[in-house]
Amino acid sequence: MEKTDVLVIGGSASGIIAAVTAKSYFPDKEVLIIRKEERVLVPCGIPYIFGSLKSSEKNLIPDGGIKKMGINLKIAEVVSIDKEEKTLKTKAGDEIGYEKLVFATGSIPVVPKWLKGAELKNVFSVLKDKVYLDKAIKKLEDCKKIIVIGGGFIGAEISDELNKCEKEVILVELLPHILNLVFDDEICQKAEEILTERGVHIRTGVGVKEIIGDKKVSGVLLNNGEKIEADAVILSIGYVPNTELAKNSGIKINEKGFIRVDEYMRTDDDPDIIAVGDCAEKRDFITRKISMTMLASTGCAEARIAGMNLYSLSAVKTFGGTIAIFATAFGDIGFGAAGLNEKTALKEGFSILTGSFEGVDKHPGTLPGTNKQLVKLIASKESGLILGGEVVGGSSTGELTNIIGLAIQNKMTVNTILTSQIGTHPLLTAPPTKYPLIEATKVICKQMRKK
To answer: Which contiguous run of DSSP H or E holds residue 163?
Structure first.
């Protein structure tokens, strides 16, 4: 029987980081990653293989880094785990023993059982599987009209990418706006305007009742009775945690289907079994409620914490909950969000103040490539504690959103941000005299002074 000290099931972002961190902090331990896929895709880069990259070959996570660190890799499918004996078995019949076991099995796309026609030819899901997606891209080459069902980040990004390939793309979303689970309505509307200008046809506030066709898809039937013809349909309705193996192994799963873990990412059942990434339970950083947020960035944070605590717990290296930091871009315009948006904060019962300011992301604004930069902040009315923020702007949007995320995680208030020191440069940032993050803070502080 093969044996290892640390065994990681799953070789995407969180699995790799868990293995790398474990090897860095405990170099004498033998670490093994076991995964089904020969080659692993960069998960967040998947939408871009449909357009900008035009190939999955340009969206691969190389194995050189883990091998250079002395981490072992095995391509196999795990079919069962014996928690008592600390062993697992693969589909090929191999048995492997471990000291510490890390679940990094990720998530799988939702295909609703009620959705008739999902089995038709030219209906595709967004699987994190290179072989499957390569076949899908090949088939989509001959399709002229494509319907994307689901206006979240992946659906919107894939729609924009397919549109670059001179396809007629129709994006259908049940909610009033695309990206509506993350952004407030006015930000969603900006995203819709940009995508529409770029050529994507957007239908919101209406769902798909049925995918129609005879063996091969010919269109969709909407809830309002309207039929739309199409050569292909892409399902982007969301993801669910991939926890069937854990469940069958007797590991506790919460009501949302995630593996239950503590702040060190250890499972309820066994401190030697850990879970990270999309398969692991998450709580919202602010509300403490179970969260459905599944992000590679969050998974990597969990993986670092898990790896650092594998053999020696640290009270200061814990996962305090997901802040849910999102970012995307359509053309030159980026959209970012961190923490609670305004509508969610109000729904949860917080008394809040909001502040928005729109400036520019370079200075002077006459510089080539300058974009408008909008920052919206949500803060506690009582304390000024930052609860969330949204950003629309140029290429700096992602990092500015990360700054808001750090502010939330470190429980900063509007006054702390107002007195923060920032570095600026004409080509890289907004002007120091009108820095949108600080200006949005001023709006809130002014409201607080009136109380």
So the answer is: helix 153-164
> Taking Cα atoms as reference points, which of 85, 102, 31 lies closest to residue 261?
102
Rounded to 5 degrees, what are φ and ψ at 18?
-60, -45
Domain boundary among 187, 207, 237: 237
For 10, other C-beta atoms within 10 Å of its C-beta total: 30
CB 306 within 8 A of CB 274: yes
Q: Which one, of 162, 137, 138, lies nearest residue 148 by Cα? A: 162
**Chain centre distance of CA 125:** 17
Question: Which residues lie below 8 Å from residue 214, measured CB to CB, with a gap of 6+?
Answer: none
Place of tokens 């033998």: 30
The domain boundary residue, chosen from 211, 237, 263: 237
Are 294 and 239 in contact, with CB atoms under 8 Å apart? yes
Check whether residue 175 and residue 277 sit in a common domain: no
Determine the Cα–Cα distance for residues 119 and 233; give it in Å rounded to an integer: 11
Q: What is the mean pLDDT of residues 261-286?
A: 96
Direct distance between the N- and C-terminal alpha carbons of the chain, in angstroms, rounded to an integer = 70
Does 404 fall in a domain?
Answer: yes
Class of residue 315 by CB neighbours under 10 A (exposed 0-12, middle 13-18, buried 19+) = exposed
Tokens of 108: 């799988």
Phi-psi region of 198 (alpha: psi -120 to 50; beta: other; left: phi over 0): alpha
Q: pTM of the full predicted structure?
A: 0.95
40 φ/ψ sector (left φ>0, alpha ψ -120 to 50, else beta): beta
The number of domains in the chain is: 3
Q: What is the pLDDT of residues 418-430, one digit of tens each?
A: 999 999 999 999 9
Does 283 lie in the same domain as 272? yes
Work out the average pLDDT over 346-362: 98
